[in-house]
Specification:
This protein is α/β, with parallel strands linked by helices. Helix content is 35%, strand content 19%. The strands form 2 sheets. A 6-stranded parallel β-sheet has the order 7-6-5-9-8-10, with helices on both faces. A 4-stranded mixed β-sheet has the order 1-4-2-3. Helix 1 packs parallel to helix 5, helix 7 (121-133) runs parallel beside helix 8 and helix 7 (121-133) packs parallel to helix 11.
Length: 259
């Protein structure tokens, strides 16, 4: 039983709330029974921790097989958790860093999402979850985007982060160049678009670029795209939430490929 915030294990878990420490250690925290169960490979787990109450009410013996499992008093566990009402179980995991070459594969109809300086953790998490459901081959985050391992991003993915390849801190020019080398058409979700996504052939290699929530896509990113694509907005709203727009674009690809 760990009962002090000064314990080295507790301090380690708490430190991973900070991006600097996540970057330094290559570790991040996932919380909740479902999320922990989504971890695909035990070798990715650095340690597992439980609150005292969770340990009393659940069978946790299987987690002690590798020796890196700890029970923490309820009071101290609250400091380890990033949620208001923690479920009482969390895991410290090793990052799975991916490069552009890992993401952009040799296939006839690759399907990708490129996010340029996406800043809202909830939006990014929702896009990752939707991309997982849509069978996207990879997500590419440019420099200036919110940290992939931000706790709010992770919660919004609902475990999808373990199902899809993602790379971050990518250069936009290099990204588009590599996509086009693989025969992938790059489309910008843009209010000035002249075509609807329904007018495009999305059965072939496709990448959709989604911009910053406040500024949209930069002029540089827009100029690199093959075509600007707009989503019809017959109502009075000027634009759509970035994750909603991304979802509409992704599911048009799904629709076309299911036919």
């Amino acid at each position: 039983m760990l009962e002090s915030r000064q314990n080295k294990i507790v301090k380690k878990i708490e430190s991973l709330k900070n991006k600097r420490d996540r970057d330094k250690t290559g570790l991040f925290v996932v919380e909740g029974e479902r999320f922990v169960s989504e971890i695909p490979d035990k070798s990715l787990i650095d340690l597992v921790a439980f609150s005292e109450t969770y340990a009393k009410n659940n069978d946790i013996e299987k987690y002690f097989e590798n020796g890196n499992a700890f029970v923490i008093s309820d009071a101290v566990f609250k400091y380890c958790s990033d949620t208001e009402n923690p479920q009482g179980i969390l895991a410290v995991c090793k990052k799975q860093e991916k490069s552009l070459k890992d993401i952009i594969k040799n296939k006839d109809n690759g399907f990708y999402i490129v996010a340029e300086e996406l800043n809202d953790p909830g939006n990014l998490g929702t896009i990752i979850r939707t991309a997982d459901a849509s069978a996207v081959d990879g997500i590419i985050l440019t420099r200036g985007s919110v940290d992939l391992y931000n706790p709010k991003v992770l919660r919004s993915t609902m475990g999808a982060i373990f199902h899809i390849d993602i790379c971050q801190n990518c250069d936009i020019s290099e990204t588009v160049s590599m996509l086009k080398e693989k025969g992938v058409s790059v489309y910008a979700g843009h209010l000035k678009g002249e075509k609807y996504p329904y007018d495009l052939d999305l059965k072939k290699g496709t990448a959709f670029m989604i911009g910053n929530e406040a500024r949209g896509l930069s002029d540089k990113a827009t100029s690199l795209c093959d075509e600007l694509v707009k989503i019809p907005i017959p109502g009075k709203a000027e634009s759509l939430n970035a994750s909603m727009a991304g979802g509409i674009l992704m599911y048009e690809v799904v629709r076309q490929r299911l036919v």
